[in-house]
Amino acid sequence: MKNSDAPAQGSALARRDFMKLGVGGAILTALPAAVAAQSKEKGVDWWDARPGKAGIGKPVAIDCHAHWSPEPYNKALTDLGQPIANNYPLNSDLEKRVQWMDEHEVQMHCLTLSGSMPWQWTSAEQGAHLAQIINDTGIEVHQKYPTRFVLGIEMPIRDPQLALKELNRVAGKPGVRAVHLPDSMDRHDYIIDPNFAPVLARIEELGYPIIFHQMDGIANNYGGDRVSGPPNLAAGLDAPTDHTVLATKLIMSGVLDKYPNLQMVLPHAGGAFPYLAGRIEHFFTHFPGQHVSLARPYREYLRRFYYDYLIYYPEAFRFLVTMVGTDRIVVGTDIFAARDVEYPTEVLDQFNFPPAERDLILKGNAIKLLHL
Q: Tell me: the pLDDT tens digits for 339-354?
């Protein structure tokens, strides 16, 4: 018998003998402590990242996944009979929000609506009116706090012509630095519809990045009512699935080839897309009848996107860095939905990146993307 054969045979024998002798429980009891020790070496999960003894430092992080809901917009929703639910005070109280940012080392938020964005239930005209309200309010907020807030343009996507009109209306105005779009609406891939092409072309021409986010509601859940609960799996499971489908369809439809200079930010670390990219490539290059011609090797498309770092587990974040590089990752906290990340700098500092790479993720990539 070769020595290399011994572990496999010995392991099988050991498992059978332990079960017979009843000592397997002792082994299993010892496992949690070992796993805990290993996890401690790997780092802490995002919600547990806290300042050390030195306390908080200077605000430096630029957050590309930071929702808001200002009072003029909230009032307009109420007037339409759709008052906002679960409105956290800091969504609209910008003075207190700046104080919170100072206490949590955040320099700037790129303001965007949450998953409750209204484009699905409004008429096209109502959506255009709401978009004007929130975009104008965002410009005013930037003028009041020019170093703390910039704006992702909201557009009434139900009507591409009205969306383009609103984009052109606010393009170039103070504080406008990105475009905010839902992954899909009613599970329809509106973004690859030919009628939406002029909007994408204009966004590319303006040089604004698209920051994506899922839209709430069973009609928008990729898994439909299967994930709506109880328990409600939509935000935790369905949303990142939707990002995965979006990224794949943007590649396979040729949109990324058609608009080579269009920059896009996927939330929640791209969902499962970086993890499943190899499987997706395999099925579209090796499976009979499924071949799709692409302009470049599939793996290169992973770096056509930027990804926020909202992945929660340090092991998963290391994988994301391995797949796309530190120059394609930005801070994203989802503030203030579920207190996902309270100290974005401490989340990153546990990895001991070289200073230049640390700064890229904390602010450098966002500065480039948002033309700050």
A: 779 899 999 999 999 9
